[in-house]
Design a protein that fits this description.
Layout (H helix, E strand, L loop, with lengths): L5 H14 L1 H22 L7 H28 L12 H43 L4 H26 L3 H8 L4 H7 L4 H35 L9 H13 L2 H8 L3 H39 L1
């Protein structure tokens, strides 16, 4: 394993998509079915009660764990996963626990930060009144509140990056990998945040190019008089709204005959939104793990 490269890590998911297109196609279908199943179960939850909200959160975490485990088994352990690509077993249960623990931890940090921001705004107003006068008290609020907000966001991002290898480590070790992620990412924050930023940029470029191509085909079909829906700005905005909402039923009602491509695009976007960031985590985990092993044997 060569040294870690943010560019290589950012492109890992894209390279995997090119290298294993038929697996990715099967995964898109499987992930869509998992999502649909989770949505079907969610409609029976008592959302008026706190227990319903907790159950819905657990359901979404489990669906995410199933999808991420399928991808990471390929990228980390080199296991195909069979025709269905997804399964429900020890990997998924451990990964669901890891995702849940990290989500709860980051949510607690964010909530604490919000409380600190509100307190800083209040204290800032008092400081601003003393320093600048009563008519400019809001200056202190902006200063103190802004600093507290930056500190909160920075802390959440830092912790998120340091813990981001936990899913890959959990699949790689077949046990909870939170501590492993924290150990392997020590001193690697700058490299990792570059990799994730590049990954997000590449994903945005990819989806933008895909959307441009899709609308180009739509326009050509419209010019040929065979488009299922007339190509116009209002219809484009409706399609984008349905896509961004990730609401297949809403898309069916809104865009009529164009529902099939919109639903297909939603399914592909959901699946690739798992593959792309998972590629960064898998690449970094394998590189850092190999580096740690080499350092021990040197």
């Amino acid at each position: 394993m060569f040294g870690f490269s943010p560019i290589s890590a950012a492109a890992t998911g894209f390279a995997f998509m090119v290298r294993r297109p038929f697996w990715v196609l099967r995964f898109i279908i499987a992930a869509a079915l998992v999502t649909k199943g989770a949505m079907w179960l969610a409609q029976y939850l008592p959302m008026q009660a706190i227990s319903g909200a907790i159950a819905l959160t657990a359901l979404m975490i489990m669906a995410s764990a199933i999808a991420n485990a399928a991808v990471l088994r390929n990228l980390v352990r080199g296991e195909d996963g069979g025709f269905a690509t997804v399964r429900l077993g020890g990997d998924e249960l451990r990964l669901a626990g890891v995702i849940g623990l990290i989500a709860i931890g980051l949510a607690f940090v964010a909530l604490t930060g919000i409380i600190l921001v509100l307190g800083a705004i209040n204290q800032g107003a008092f400081f601003g009144e003393l320093a600048f006068g009563a008519d400019r008290a809001q200056w202190g609020s902006w200063m103190f509140g802004g600093l507290a907000l930056v500190l909160t966001l920075g802390t959440v991002v830092y912790l998120g990056i340091r813990l981001s290898l936990s899913p890959a480590a959990t699949i790689g070790q077949r046990r909870v990998g939170i501590a492993t992620s924290w150990r392997l990412t020590r001193g690697r924050f700058a490299e990792l945040i570059q990799a994730y930023a590049l990954n997000i940029t590449l994903a945005l470029l990819f989806f933008s190019a895909l959307a441009t191509a899709a609308f180009g085909v739509w326009w050509m079909l419209d010019q040929a008089g065979v488009a299922p829906v007339k190509f116009d700005v209002a219809q484009i905005l409706t399609a984008i709204k349905a896509f961004v909402a990730m609401d297949a039923t809403g898309g069916l009602k809104l865009v009529g005959a164009a529902a099939a491509p919109i639903i297909a695009a939603q399914a592909m976007a959901n699946a690739l939104a798992v593959i792309f960031p998972a590629g960064v985590g898998a690449n970094a985990y394998l590189c850092f793990l190999q580096f740690a092993r080499d350092s021990q044997t040197a």
